[in-house]
Design brief:
Radius of gyration: 16 Å
Strand content: 15-25%
Distance between the termini: 44 Å
Strand order of the largest sheet: 1-2
Helix content: 40-55%
Number of helices: 7
Structural class: alpha+beta
Number of strands: 4
Largest sheet: 2 strands, antiparallel
């Protein structure tokens, strides 16, 4: 086994264990959390990425401290005043579903963090996923996962 294949396998295994732990223990961790996922050491929604840009620019764009808005106990950051104002006028239109937690994890009955670069918009709603592997699973049957996640949310936070 080469060093690179060992480290890739090790990372894959560790990632799998992290996802499993998040799914198994996520509800316990989330019970003390806000309904908006902000990470453990932050109060920034979507890790500081602009929620409006996913819809208007079709990509993940980091927000700027100069254009922030507080909603549901989290700070939301935007790349422009126009995006901030659009969000402030209708946050439910732009905010990610399930508080920004991984949509696949919510469908599976738990919670997990999300990567702002692993996203999709389905029928005008933003969904985030834990990582690329999880997103690939999510994309295979996202309609069924959305239906299941809608049934599980927000009870998975308890």
């Amino acid at each position: 086994m080469t060093r690179s294949s060992f480290s890739h396998r090790t990372r894959t295994c560790m990632l799998g264990l992290t996802v499993l732990a998040s799914l198994l223990f996520g509800a316990t961790i989330a019970s003390a959390a806000s309904p908006v996922y902000t990470g453990y050491f932050s109060n920034a929604a979507i890790s500081g990425y602009d929620a409006v840009a996913y819809h208007t620019d079709n990509k993940a764009i980091e927000g700027d401290d100069d254009y922030s808005f507080e909603w549901m106990g989290a700070n939301w950051y935007f790349r422009s005043a126009a995006n901030r104002d659009a969000f402030a006028a209708n946050p439910e239109k732009y905010a990610p579903q399930y508080g920004g937690y991984c949509a696949y994890a919510v469908a599976m009955g738990g919670t997990a963090s999300s990567d702002p670069h692993q996203w999709s918009i389905v029928r005008g709603k933003l969904y985030l996923n834990y990582d690329g592997n999880v997103q690939a699973r999510w994309q295979k049957d996202r309609e069924a996962f959305i239906q299941q996640a809608n049934q599980n949310w927000p009870e998975v936070l308890n």
